[in-house]
Amino acid sequence: MPPCQCCLLGLKPGIVGSIRHFGAIDPMLKRRLADLGVAEGSNVTIKRRCPLGGPIMLECCGQLLGIRKKEAAQIEVDVS
User: Fold this and answer.
1) What are the Ferrous iron transporter FeoA-like domain coordinates in residue numbering (predicted)?
2) Could you give the domains of the chain?
């Protein structure tokens, strides 16, 4: 069965996905994420969705990160 492709925003908490493509996010944000170990091919897990349009908490490389929903919608992931 081939992996399902969706955006990071579409993952449910606890599901592991592999980052496929960053899309059209800000180059400075992409660089910051790369400095934190979040790169194409990295496995990420959604830990929590903050209410009222707040950020999404995700885990990557043993670190917890918060990312805006606007940017999470542009990051494409593969789910196996």
Assistant:
1) 6-79
2) 4-79 (2.30.30.90)
- Write the DSSP symbol of residue 19: E
Of the candidates 69, 76, 60, 64, the residue with the CA atom closest to the CA atom of residue 19: 76
Residue 51 in tokens: 């209410």
Strands 16-21 and 43-49, sheet pairing: antiparallel
Residue range 15-29, pLDDT digits in tens: 899 999 888 888 998
Cβ proximity of 75 and 13 under 8 Å: no
Cα 63 to Cα 4, 21, 57, 78: the distances in Å are: 24, 20, 10, 20
Contact 46, 15 (CB under 8 A): yes
pLDDT in tens, 2-57: 555 688 888 888 889 999 988 888 899 899 988 888 889 999 999 998 888 889 99
